[in-house]
Design goal:
With 725 residues, this protein is of the alpha/beta class. The protein contains 27 helices and 19 strands. It has a 6-stranded mixed β-sheet, with helices on both faces. It has a 5-stranded mixed β-sheet with strand order 14-13-12-17-18, sandwiched between helices. Helix 11 runs antiparallel to helix 13, helix 14 crosses helix 15 and helix 15 packs antiparallel against helix 17. The relative contact order is 0.14. Keywords: Coiled coil, DNA damage, Nucleus, Transcription, Transcription regulation. This is Actin-like ATPase domain-containing protein. It is found in: Nucleus.
């Protein structure tokens, strides 16, 4: 039993879409929150929105920040879907729009639909919203965006007060970390990554943003797979690429060392992931009766085609005979007509003179004879050339022209005959050699195998010699290249090269100019390629026989496997670790392999240049921020490096972050990295905790303050942005 029979690699199914929990409309509003002034906490993320009451333990609503508005042709009505409901209909999904540009709200018409959905799902059925609102916003949110959001909440929903805060700082608060003790928040979300230093508050003037997040990783994975499988039978969607990122990626502790692991044929199978995409299997195989009927129809169709071809040949023969009869009648009419009238008739038939008419009649007779022979199944007669051996002085002008044609036709005929004979002789010789070799293999297998191995080694040495010669010829200063250039120059010269040339006379300067080198490479390219391909073809013939008859000769021993890293992986797959590709396996056609992409995609957070982003990675950014503070503040910050955000859930991120930071921090530094207890929901939980305190009401902007100071007005607090003109 082979290794392939014992080991069946695991195949992972791609997720069509994420599993969503439906958001049920609340029915306890009147008993739970009516007339109680409980704040509404909205974690307004660019990827997902989480909503709940301030005294809830976890958010009541959690949905994608998307809105779809389209016209349903079945019911002939406009349909508006918000959040997870858009995934219930393909048309809605294709028309989905976000209210965000990056991580900033810019489409407030869409935002209004989202707020309508929020208040409806919370069960609020009053004429206005009687609850204060605490909403998260990104770091350094533009004043214009905040003004329009406040205008929407106060003017459309008549809320009593509004307060804004940064989601990353709320997550820091939810994990019981003290602002006074200091720290650093590294928050990686859907579109961006922020690094915020904390000394009593968020020091926003030293905060850095990296334009890399979960959406960036998804787009990068999608592009990598599209480049890797350009002819994949189905189109990979963004949600499917997101599933690959969430389920199969991890952060390498040493990226370049891990890349070598992927190039190692012994460790590659354990890291490779086979992903099965959905497909519709082909129809069931036909029964014997259906196959018989299909074969009968095929034969009937072939018979009809033959009949049609026979009719066409008969019709063609009739047309040729009619043409021949017309030409003969035209020839015979000369005796009964005046010469001028007869010449006029010739010109009407586009014939210049009588000689051309005779030539046409002769050709038509030959065509008629060939058509009759083909119709009757008679082989063509051997062509004759009667004028070839006749001296020119015994021929008239027309016969001499015909003789030239016959000489050319005879030469062509003889060339074709020689080619046929050469092909037939080569075929017989090859068959004879194959029979002799087969007989020798049967009678003396060991001797035949040793002879085959010796021939293979000799041929392998020839191929290697050609490879070395090719490398030498690429170097214009090498001895082999110089000799060949001189040979080409001598052949191209109008005067033959003298054996001994005196100094200063006819000095050969070919090769001293760069244009000469270009000419040389162009001349030698095709010849070298042809010679190398011929030798490789012979080598592969030997390898094919050795693979068939020598059990010690394995696929990885072939020349291609040893000299091509890509091919070595292919041969590794054929050894039984991964199923070999079967073109008749319809399911296998819809499989793809995710391997090096598993570490390349998340590595962009540490090396943004991988995705073409001219920014520093998260480790360099943290190091730069720490160096901006004095010694005491530095010690405080590195004791609490807090990591939050949905994008930080990638396995291996925290160990890599700790290892990389230790390499740039002092050896005696007390480094502590803290991961959020729930990187996704902690921002909402921290906001809800703060909304229960008196500070929330102190820093919330009331409706009266909004009307007096405008929508851009805000009260600065430790969780929020600061006002910047």
């Amino acid at each position: 039993m082979s290794l392939r029979d014992n080991l069946q690699p695991k195949i992972y199914n791609i997720a069509e879409r994420r599993n969503f929990t439906p958001n049920i409309t609340a029915t306890d509003y009147e008993s739970f929150a009516f007339n109680k002034g409980i704040p509404i906490v909205i974690d307004n993320g660019s990827y997902q929105c989480r909503v709940g009451w301030a005294n809830d333990v976890s958010p009541r609503l959690q949905f994608d920040s998307m809105v779809s508005k389209y016209r349903d042709r079945k019911i002939n009505q406009s349909v508006l879907l918000v959040g997870n409901d858009i995934y219930t209909d393909a048309t809605a999904k294709s028309n989905a729009k976000s209210a965000f540009d990056g991580n900033v709200v810019y489409n407030f018409e869409t935002m209004e639909y989202i707020l309508d959905y929020i208040f409806f799902k919370l069960g609020i059925n009053t004429d206005k919203v009687y609850h204060p609102v605490l909403m998260t916003e990104p770091v350094c949110n533009p004043n214009h965006s905040r003004r329009l959001m406040s205008e929407l909440l106060f003017e459309s929903y008549d809320v009593p007060s509004v307060c804004y805060g940064i989601d990353a700082l709320f997550s820091f608060h939810a994990n019981n970390l003290s602002f006074d003790e200091g720290g650093i928040v590294a928050s990686s979300g859907h579109t961006t990554t922020h690094v915020i230093p904390i000394i009593g508050r968020g020091v926003l003037e030293h905060t850095k943003r990296i334009s890399c997040g979960g959406l960036t990783s998804t787009d990068y994975m999608l592009k990598l797979m599209q480049l890797k499988y350009p002819t994949f039978p189905t189109k990979m969607t963004v949600n499917q690429a997101q599933h690959l990122v969430h389920s199969f990626t991890y952060v390498a502790q040493d990226y370049f060392k891990e890349l070598k692991e992927y190039s190692n044929t012994s460790t590659f199978p354990s890291k490779d992931r086979i992903i099965q995409f959905p497909y519709v299997p082909p129809a069931n195989e036909k029964t014997e009766e259906e196959l018989a009927r299909q074969e009968e129809r095929r034969q009937e169709q072939a018979r009809r085609l033959k009949e049609q071809a026979a009719k066409l040949r008969i019709q063609k023969l009739k047309d040729l005979e009619n043409n021949l009869e017309a030409y003969v009648q035209l020839k015979e009419s000369r005796s009964s007509m005046k010469k001028s009238e007869w010449i006029t008739r010739l010109k009407e038939n586009r014939i210049s003179d009588e000689a051309e008419l005779d030539e046409i009649i002769l050709k038509t007779e030959k065509s008629v004879q060939r058509a009759r022979n083909k119709l009757l199944g008679i082989d063509e007669e051997e062509p004759t050339f009667p004028l070839v051996d006749t001296p020119d002085d015994q021929l008239n002008e027309a016969e001499r022209k015909e003789k030239k044609k016959q000489v050319a036709a005879k030469s062509l005929h003889e060339t074709r005959q020689r080619q046929k004979e050469a092909k037939e002789l080569a075929r017989r010789q090859q068959e004879e050699e194959e029979r002799a070799e087969e007989q020798r293999r049967i009678n003396d297998f060991e001797g035949w195998l040793n002879e085959l191995k010796n021939s293979y080694e000799s041929q392998l040495e020839k191929v290697k010699s050609l490879k070395r010669k090719k490398e030498q010829l690429l170097d214009r200063r090498s001895h082999a290249s110089q000799l060949r250039m001189k040979s080409i120059a001598n052949l191209a010269s109008d005067t033959p090269n003298q054996k001994r040339r005196r100094r200063g006379q006819d000095e050969d300067t070919f090769g001293m100019d760069d244009n000469d080198w270009s000419i040389y490479k162009e001349i030698s390219k095709e010849e070298d390629a042809w010679e190398e391909e011929e030798e490789l073809s012979q080598l592969r013939d030997y390898e094919h026989k050795l693979l068939r008859y020598d059990p010690a000769f394995l696929p990885e021993h072939t020349f291609d496997a040893k000299n091509s890293q890509q091919n070595s992986l292919v041969f590794m797959l054929t050894r039984g670790v991964v199923p070999a590709y079967d073109p008749e396996n319809f399911g296998q056609m819809h499989q793809l392999h995710v391997n090096v992409e598993r570490i390349r995609v998340p590595e962009a957070l540490f090396q943004p240049s991988i995705i073409g982003l001219d920014q520093a990675g998260v480790v360099e950014t943290i190091g730069d921020i720490v160096n901006r503070f004095d010694y005491d503040d530095q010690r405080k910050m590195i004791k609490s490096i807090f990591v939050t955000g949905g994008h930080t859930q990638t396995p291996g991120l925290l160990p890599r972050l700790e290892t990389s930071l230790r390499s740039i921090l002092p050896s005696d530094a007390s480094l502590r990295i803290i991961h959020a207890s729930d990187p996704v929901i902690d921002a909402w939980r921290g906001a809800a905790l703060w909304a229960r305190t008196e500070d929330f009401y102190k820093y919330a902007v009331t409706r009266q303050e909004y009307q007096e100071y405008g929508g851009e007005y805000l009260k600065e607090h430790r969780f929020g942005n600061v006002y910047r003109i």
